[in-house]
Amino acid sequence: MLLIKKTGILAPLYSFMGWIMNSIYNILDSMNVVSLGFSIIIFTIVVRLLIFPLNLKSMKSSKIQKFIQPEFNKINKKYKGRKDQQSMMKQQAEVRELQSKYGIKMTSGCLTSLIQIPIFFSLYWVIRNIPSYVTKIHKLYEPIADSVKTAFESVTVDGGKYEGFKAFVSQQKIMLESGSLSLKTYNSGEGIIDAVSKFTGKNWEALGTKLSELGVTNFNVDEHLAKVNKANEFFGINLTESPGLKLSIALIIPLAAFLFQFLQTIAMQKQQVITDASQEATMQTMNKMTKILPVFSLILCISVSAGVGLYWAVGAFVAFITTVLTNAYYDRVDMEKIVEKSMAKAAIKNEKRKASGKKSLMERLAENAAAQQEARENQEGMEKYGSARLKNYTSNSTNNSTQSNTNVRYRQGSIASKANAMKQYNDKESK
After folding, report:
1. Residues near 203 by Cβ (< 8 Å), separated by ≥ 6?
2. Higher-confidence position of 269 and 152
């Protein structure tokens, strides 16, 4: 039973992640392990393993680049000190040719990062809205939703029962997703569960007081809260609440996220390979961003719910471990055999691509860059030709009348004279 169903292009991904989470929780529950925290940990590991093949492919490409670094160095040495646009484009073309020869894809790392973005958002949504996807936890909130609807049934001021509950949630300063609490979701009870699932201790006390004021006497806040907390707590940490800046055991999650993200950053930097000057500038920018990432992780995990922070910390830990193990593996294997296999596969793939006439993304980008450079050079040439023509011609002084282009004389050997000769030749050929 979905609480507030996400719509849009990523809706199937949200549902798939929610199905995984629900399955893990049910399996643990059947083993008498009722723990949302362990469910999130296993959930994170499973998702990380699903995307591990993409990370492995990117790491393999980096290791091959590192192994053939001397060949990249030859190209860099060949064009050392040549900063003109034409030389830089030739250098990049030779680098791409070398990468194509060995089956290296520079976009593999970017592709892996791009794929992880929608996955992270789907994970964030699932963990932030656990009752939406974990049916057993959803059932804990159903009696609460029924009591709320019964209590606010008598509210007639400020637009009625729905508006009354909405005003109460607003007073509690609960941040809800846009559209999650509407008249439709209130009547179905789903909007009430979505709001109540984000309540903290003080909000629960306020809810109990409000229900008592509205005449509901059979609602035991402590009883329902104990059931909810039992499902949401993990070693004394309430996973539905954010750690904040207050001193508590929950701060261990942001600190762990910072530490593991920092270790992952160091592990990733060890496998970076610079193939040309343009990539060096890109790497420097990326390194600056990766240094900021641990601090960002710390701030994020302090601000969001501890459940989301737990996912982030465990994800960073798994990424660090897999990176270390992958680096250790490639340090021990015979890289020559790996490079030979990669070259053989690349040769077959390149032949098929040539036969089909298709061009890679990098080739298309390179052609577009070359075309733009040629257009700029032509424009500059035309501007130079125009200024040189005005500067280098002398007219006959026999009369002051306007003269035709045939009477214009240029200094011998000047750029304008050569351009004019070429123009007359082209005009003659056109005729």
Report:
1. 172, 174
2. 152
pTM: 0.69
Mean pLDDT of 252-276: 80
Look up residue 146 and give its two tokens. Answer: 């029924």
Is residue 162's pLDDT more than 70? yes
What is the 3-state secondary structure of the chain?
CCCCCCCCCCHHHHHHHHHHHHHHHHHHHHCCCCCHHHHHHHHHHHHHHHHHHHHHHHHHHHHHHHHCHHHHHHHHHHCCCCCCHHHHHHHHHHHHHHHHHHCCCCCHHHHHHHHHHHHHHHHHHHHHCHHHHCHHHHHHHHHHHHHHHHHHHHCCCCCCHHHHHHHHHHHCCCCCCCCCCCHHHHHHCHHHHHHHCCCCHHHHHHHHHHHHHCCCCCCCHHHHHHHHHHHHEECCEECCCCCCCCCCHHHHHHHHHHHHHHHHHHHHHCCCCCCCHHHHHHHHHHHHHHHHHHHHHHHHHHHCCHHHHHHHHHHHHHHHHHHHHHHHHHHHCCHHHHHHHHHHHHHHHHHHHHHHCCCCHHHHHHHHHHHHHHHHHHHHHHHHHHHHHHHHEECCCCCCCCCCHHHCEECCCCHHHHHHHHHHHHHHHHC
- The mean pLDDT value for 84-98 works out to 80
Give the C-alpha separation, 96 to 345, whole Å: 16
Q: How does pLDDT run across 273-330, given as a tens digit for each residue?
A: 555 555 555 556 666 666 788 898 899 899 888 988 999 999 999 989 988 888 888 8
Structure tokens at 60: 């393999």
| pLDDT at 2 (0 to 100) | 42
Q: What are phi and psi of 233, to 5 degrees?
A: -85, 145
Is 371 a residue whose pLDDT tops 70?
A: no
310, 257 contact by CB (below 8 A) = no
Tens-place pLDDT, residues 173-187: 887 777 788 888 888
Residue 357: CB partners within 8 Å, gap ≥ 6? none
* Cα distances (angstroms) measured from residue 66 to each of 103, 113, 331, 390, 404: 13, 21, 11, 55, 65
CB 95 within 8 A of CB 75: yes
CB-based contacts of 345: which residues, under 8 Å, 6+ apart?
Answer: 103
| Least reliable range by pLDDT among 91-100, 290-299, 320-329, 396-405 | 396-405
